[in-house]
Amino acid sequence: MKKLFICERPYMLYKTIVKALLNEEDEMDVVLSNHMQGMEKMKEPLENSHLFHRVFFSMISYIRII
Predict the structure, then answer these.
(1) Which of 3, 20, 44, 58 has the maximum number of C-beta atoms within 10 A of its C-beta?
(2) What digits encode the pLDDT tens for the residues 18-27?
(3) How far from each other are the two terminal CA atoms of the chain, in whole angstroms?
(4) What is the biggest distance separating any 2 CA atoms in the chain, rounded to whole angstroms?
(5) Within a 10 A sphere around the Cβ of 26, how many other Cβ atoms?
(6) Strand partners, 31
């Protein structure tokens, strides 16, 4: 089964890594976002780990209405 995980914060990424380690049969992709500073630094190590089929980084813009 194919799965896509969207991780905006490190905690969600840690939970996703555990799921990937426990369930190697599924094809898992992960999307990291710029919601927290420094998440872009995780892209290359995750790609090199081969835990996920594909790893993406997305710049997300937030609009605040006051």
Answers:
(1) 20
(2) 999 998 788 9
(3) 42
(4) 46
(5) 11
(6) 6, 56
Instruction: Name beta bridge partners: 6.
Output: 31
For the stretch 47-51, contacts whose Cβ atoms lie closer than 8 Å and that sit 24 or more positions apart, written own/partner, are 51/17, 51/20, 51/21
Stated pTM of the model? 0.81
Residues 6 or more apart from 35 whose CB is under 8 A from it? 8, 9, 60
| Strand 2-7, strand 54-58: pairing | unpaired
Tokens linked to 56: 């993406």
**pLDDT tens digits for range 39-54:** 889 999 999 999 999 9
Say if residues 2 and 26 touch (Cβ distance below 8 Å). Answer: yes
